[in-house]
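ok, trying the design again with the full structure, not the truncated one.
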């Protein structure tokens, strides 16, 4: 079992920044790739970013590339999502997820089935 708890969401103006955190417990954190997804009202959950177990490789959705940065601290069992230059279309509930294995690829990272544990989500609202 893995427990994931997100934090750091909130209300921010367009152009602002937020940093999301996801604290993990249970299965050895460093044995899992990790991902961030988001879901806006009335829309399907979509991929945002992913990182391999060591942090050596990261992957991003085109919509956030250059603005968001995923990172992890295996000593703290925590994965982060730094979000800069936020836009109103970034408004969503953001979820972190634990991957089934050490690695993800650009092809597999966006697949929800690649992840077997999910957090409860944290709301991010960007006002115009």
């Amino acid at each position: 079992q893995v427990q994931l708890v997100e934090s750091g969401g909130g209300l921010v103006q367009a152009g602002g920044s937020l940093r999301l955190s996801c604290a993990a417990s249970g299965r050895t954190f460093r044995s899992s790739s990790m991902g961030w997804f988001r879901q806006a009202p009335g829309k399907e959950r979509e991929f945002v970013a992913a990182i391999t177990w060591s942090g050596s490789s990261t992957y991003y959705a085109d919509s956030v590339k250059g603005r968001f940065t995923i990172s992890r601290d295996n000593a703290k069992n925590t994965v982060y999502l730094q979000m800069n230059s936020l836009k109103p279309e970034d408004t969503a509930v953001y979820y972190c997820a634990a991957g089934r294995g050490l690695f993800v690829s650009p092809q597999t990272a966006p697949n929800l089935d690649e992840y077997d544990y999910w957090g409860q989500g944290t709301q991010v609202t960007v006002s115009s």
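Keeping the full-length input from now on. The two ends are 40 Å apart (CA to CA).
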